[in-house]
Automatic annotation (TrEMBL):
PANTHER family from the UniProt entry: CHITINASE (PTHR22595:SF96), CHITINASE-RELATED (PTHR22595)
Keyword match Protease: no
Full protein name: chitinase
Record organism: Musa acuminata subsp. malaccensis (Wild banana)
Sequence ranges assigned to domain Glycoside hydrolase family 19 catalytic in this UniProt record: 60-292
Position of the signal peptide: 1-29
């Protein structure tokens, strides 16, 4: 009985092959652990880290935006902590404020809110509390000089509707309301006024812009800030490097960047640094590639429509 039954040998080999294939599949599809933190962060690896409400609490929001409810502010009673956290809950599972270590997470919240504070401020040089204490003073542009209606095939203007600036990172122009409305699945093209009626939606639209590239194959402001983006050779030649400076480039292009140390850029940086200090991270965290004074725009305004 020197010979084994040949069909049995085949069966054993087949079995081993199947086992090997199963092992390979199991190894390659080993899923990273996902965590669930209730309503605020659900079913994502990012939720395994701290969430925004763990390190950014209502008193900190009040510190950052301490003048927003004084009688001279335009949006008294509109903006609050709860609407920010509710809006953020949609994007935390995608990495907003939950990427990297605690410093990066807090830094991203300060960076995002720095943009918001600068764009909604009614502070000026001699304002009480200083010019940086007045973020979230506005929820809309006060004296629009035009109706911001551009010929657009995809997002034609609705008659009688104006597309002036509204929201936390103010949205201007019909095509931007259209695009962001599509992203949020809310009909902002017909109802841009929703952004000045609902603070949660206004924050959501702003975080959506922060998390979404302007064009395919480009990074988002989130990507360039948290270090998820590797500059190409072209980027390096155009002096675009990861950091806060590039977030301004993504969001505003050559309206703010590549113009030297202009006020519009410095004002956003000042808000970011002020918030870093108030949150206890400290402005020393902000150092690498902080400005975009020398950066060429990702999307030069001569060849593309800009978002603001
Ligand atoms: C969570 O934070 C750690 C550092 O504390 C970081 O290494 C890791 O990448 C973060 N997780 C995610 C999914 O970003
Ligand atoms: C405000 O917007 C949020 C987010 O889109 C939505 O869930 C909520 O129902 C809105 N609130 C009102 C009063 O329309
Ligand atoms: C790099 O820049 C050059 C000149 O601006 C441009 O023609 C080329 O398409 C760019 N390459 C990439 C990959 O973007």
């Amino acid at each position: 009985m020197a010979r084994k039954n040949p069909s049995m040998e085949v069966a054993v080999v087949m079995h081993l092959l199947v086992l090997a294939a199963w092992c390979a599949t199991a190894a390659s599809s080993a899923k990273p652990k996902v965590c669930d933190k209730g309503w605020e962060c659900k079913n994502s690896v990012y939720c395994c880290n701290e969430t925004i409400s763990d390190f950014f609490q209502v008193y900190q929001f009040e510190n950052l935006f301490s003048k927003r409810n004084t009688p001279v502010a335009q949006a008294v009673g509109f903006w609050d902590y709860h609407s920010f956290i509710t809006a953020a809950a949609v994007y935390q599972p995608l990495g907003f404020g939950t990427t990297g270590g605690k410093q990066t997470q807090m830094g991203e919240v300060a960076a995002f809110l720095g943009h918001v504070g600068s764009k909604t401020s009614c502070g000026y040089g001699v304002a009480t509390g200083g010019p940086l204490a007045w973020g979230l003073c506005y929820k809309r542009e006060m004296s629009p000089s035009q109706s911001y209606c551009d010929d657009n095939y995809l997002y034609p203007c609705t008659p009688g509707v104006d597309y002036y600036g509204r929201g936390a990172l103010p949205v201007y122009w019909n095509y931007n309301y259209g695009t962001i409305g599509d992203g949020l699945k809310v009909d902002l093209l017909n109802h841009p006024e929703y952004l000045e009626q609902n603070a949660t939606l206004a924050f959501q639209a702003a975080i959506y812009r922060w998390m979404t590239p302007m064009k395919k194959k480009q990074p988002s402001a989130h990507d360039v800030f948290v270090g998820k983006w590797k500059p190409t050779k072209n980027d390096t030649l155009a002096k675009r490097l990861p950091g806060f400076g590039a977030t301004m480039n993504v969001l505003y292009g050559d309206q703010v960047c590549g113009q030297g140390p202009v006020d519009g850029m410095n004002n956003i940086i000042s808000h970011y640094q002020y918030y870093l200090d108030l949150m206890g991270v400290g402005r020393q965290f902000s150092s690498d590639n902080l400005d975009c004074a020398e950066q060429e725009a990702f999307n030069p305004s001569s060849t593309s429509s800009s978002t603001t």
